[in-house]
Amino acid sequence: MTDRPLIGVSTYLEPARWGVWELEAALLPAGYPRLVQAAGGLTAMLPPDDPAYAAGVVARLDGLVIAGGPDVDPSRYGAERDPRCGPEARARDGWELALIEAALDSGTPLLGVCRGMQLLNVALGGTLVQHIDGHAEAVGVYGRHGVKPVPGSLCAGLVGEEVSVPTYHHQAVERLGAGLVPSAYAGDGTIEAVELPGPRWVLGVQWHPEMGVDVRVMAGLVGASS
Q1: CA distances from 107 to 32, 39, 55, 101, 110 (A)
Q2: What DSSP line would sit under 31-78, residue for residue?
Q3: Type and span of the H or E element at 155
Q4: Positions marked catalytic
Q5: What backbone phi and psi angles, to 5 degrees, belong to 56?
Q6: Which residues of 47-77 are buried (b: 16+ CB within 10 A; e: fewer)?
Q7: I need a surface site. Which of 29, 101, 155, 162 has the fewest CB within 10 A?
Q8: In the chain, what are the helix, strand and coil shares in percent, each to the nearest 5?
Q9: Considering the entire predicted model, what is its pTM?
Q10: Which phi-psi region, left, alpha or beta, contains residue 76 (left: φ > 0; alpha: ψ -120 to 50)?
């Protein structure tokens, strides 16, 4: 099958070691391409680049995923840095914000995962809570908890009434960005999904679908990209 939708996924750019090599590498957890493939798509990795190229890149894609990763620089949403906020990732922030803007402008289907959901919120003028407890099992260990979608939302249409999800984060949406509506909540009231109502397919989820086998969220993106 040669007409599978091409889904771009943003990546880390980090020092890495494999075999005899220790070099800077564009990294992406394998769960992302596996989930895209399981949903019927092809994956293109999008490491940080000059934000001026973002619109041209998005124009060549059928859909876009902004992957999880480090904390968003608080200066991006006008906040002072909390001591518990992680190190900045300026190259990723600038590149991924430009990708999000290009996807929104072009109507390209867009899925934000964890950091990606937070960046979507920031791109639309929202703010973030820089630290919350209870949404990560331990350092480097994914936990699970239930999320309850808002009835009638895009999220609810994909995953149903309530679902247990893999989770690992310590930041969350505070003030919603322009046009965004919450479409799922955790039991403690944390916003677990956001979306843009209307004809564009735009969804952010705070959890990590790529760390499980539930393909429904990614299938929604791939289907909208077909």
Answers
A1: 22, 20, 12, 10, 8
A2: HHHHHHHHTT-EEEEE----GGGHHHHHHT-SEEEE---SPPPGGGGT
A3: helix 154-159
A4: 114, 208, 210
A5: -65, -35
A6: bbbebeebeebbeebbbbbbbbbebbbbebb
A7: 162
A8: 30, 30, 40
A9: 0.97
A10: alpha
Dihedral angle computed from the Cα positions of residues 46, 52, 58 and 59, in that order, rounded to the nearest 10 degrees: -140
Q: Give the integer Cα–Cα distance in Å for 45 and 14.
A: 14
The neighbouring-strand residues paired with 167 are: 143
Indicate the length of the chain as a whole number: 226
d(CA 153, CA 220): 13
Hey, what amino acid is at 197?
A: P
Amino acid at 184: A
In the block, which residue shows the tokens 């092809």? 42
Tokens coding 112? 């934000």
User: How many of the other CB atoms lie within 10 Å of CB of 107?
Assistant: 12
**Cβ-contact 119, 72 below 8 angstroms:** yes
Contact 145, 164 (CB under 8 A): yes
